[in-house]
Amino acid sequence: MMWPRNITQDQTRAIRLLGIPFVYALLLLAVPLGAILLFSFWTQDFMTVDTTFTLDNYREIADSPIYAMLLQRSLMVSGIVTAVTVILAYPVAYFVSFHVAPSKKSLWLFLITIPFWTSYLIRVFLWKVILGYNGVINSALLQVGIIDAPLTFILYNVNAVIITLAHAFAPFAILPIFVVLEKIDRSLLEASQDLGESRFSTFFRVTLPLSMPGVVGAVLIVFIPTIGDYVTPELMGGAGGKLIANMIQTQFLQLNNAPLGAALAIVAMVCVTAVALAFVFLNRRWLRARR
After folding, report:
1. Pick from 258, 232, 246: nearest CA to 67
2. CA-CA distances (angstroms) from residue 147 to 49, 151, 245?
């Protein structure tokens, strides 16, 4: 009779331990998401909200080409930022993991996280100083004589948004890749070279496949939040660099049309989820094909 009682006590203890975090996550994640989903099926006329169920917001999104254009641009910018960030982050993570002495790795990680010491908004303004018409880059190129007039394509457009976001999310890509690289058994690499493989082929046949969980994590960590960033496009993008998040912010705070903003947010979340799941599925197929 004691054994079932012990099981019951363990289950009760587990429920108590998991209950509070579950309720906490439910209140912070599920309830706001449910509220946004519910709001997307309502309509609003200035300050009056009509709670009648309707699909008018989604019909307007489907019929207005500007929303599709902004969503397409947002996915493109997020994809480019993710690709640039992960491609540049992988060599850094590889160098720290394989070529830095163990006693100095913590110092390198400390240096990588230094950008987090300052406000994200301050970092965006610093990039405006760097990329500006009379900024650091243009002034240096003019003094060297490489250009005759300041470059205008590096600020207040999509290029400036991509550069700023890639710098801001670089640590988020480096750290997960580094963690996975640290877990790779070095004896596997030695065995590969003992069997006649070169360092180049060992990297592509052993190191890269084993590090793919970190790469996938880095891709998702960078791709998902960048598509929802509206501060960087607002300050760096100019008229031609606005993204879907800027339109959502405009609907909520300037046009007093929260239901349409909520519908745009739901559509953006569905698109991001579909792209993320497709990437994970293709990555699994690629790993299975290499086995």
Report:
1. 246
2. 55, 8, 35
Query: Domain total for the chain?
Result: 1
148 is a domain residue: yes
pLDDT of residue 4: 52
CA angle 174, 236, 252 (to 5 degrees): 100
Q: Which two tokens stand for residue 282?
A: 């293709």
Task: Indicate the SS3 state at residue 221.
Answer: helix
Residue 184 forms part of a structural domain: yes
| CA–CA distance, 30 with 36 (Å, rounded to integer) | 10
245 has pLDDT over 90: yes
Residue 195 and residue 108 in contact, taking contact as beta carbons nearer than 8 Å: no
> CA angle, corner 67, sides to 243 and 280, nearest 5?
70
Please give the model's pTM, rounded to 2 decimal places: 0.87
In the numeric block, which tokens belong to residue 116?
């987090």
